[in-house]
Design a protein that fits this description.
6 helices
């Protein structure tokens, strides 16, 4: 299995509880070839500080900015800015709670790299997900 396809998520809240431990854990797991996403990005007061300091690969934009994106100019400005900042730091972006085509279209326009939500796929059980991966790789379960 290609470890670079495994992406762990860590919330900003968990990371700041013990920054040194979180940073060390992220680096150790990244040495195995796995990647990390900073989840719930944008809802903490120090988000940009931790973006600069944590060796994550992705920023997962909190769904509170995505849910009403097509109707909220404020959210549009914030998401566009987050996309630009993430790109400047060499991070890719993931938008949570993508539920409409209008939202997905805006995210594409803003350069968001990945989308997650009911428009993309309904949640699946762990077993179903791994079974699909095995089938895709022509492996038996």
């Amino acid at each position: 299995m290609d470890n670079s396809k495994v992406i762990f998520e860590i919330t900003e809240t968990a990371a700041v509880t013990d920054f040194a431990v979180a940073n060390g854990m992220i680096l150790a797991i990244k040495e195995l070839g796995c990647r990390f996403a900073l989840d719930d990005f944008g809802i903490g007061f120090s988000s940009f500080y931790y973006l600069k300091r944590l060796p994550v690969d992705y920023l997962k934009i909190d769904g509170s900015f995505i849910r009403q994106l097509s109707d909220s100019l404020d959210d549009q400005l914030i998401v566009r800015a987050m996309s630009q900042v993430a790109a400047g730091f060499g991070k890719q972006t993931i938008a949570e709670y993508v539920e409409t085509q209008a939202t997905l279209d805006l995210l594409r326009e803003y350069g968001i790299d990945f989308a997650q939500g009911y428009l993309i796929s309904e949640p699946r059980s762990e077993e179903e997900t791994f079974y699909r991966v095995l089938l895709k790789q022509n492996l038996s379960p």
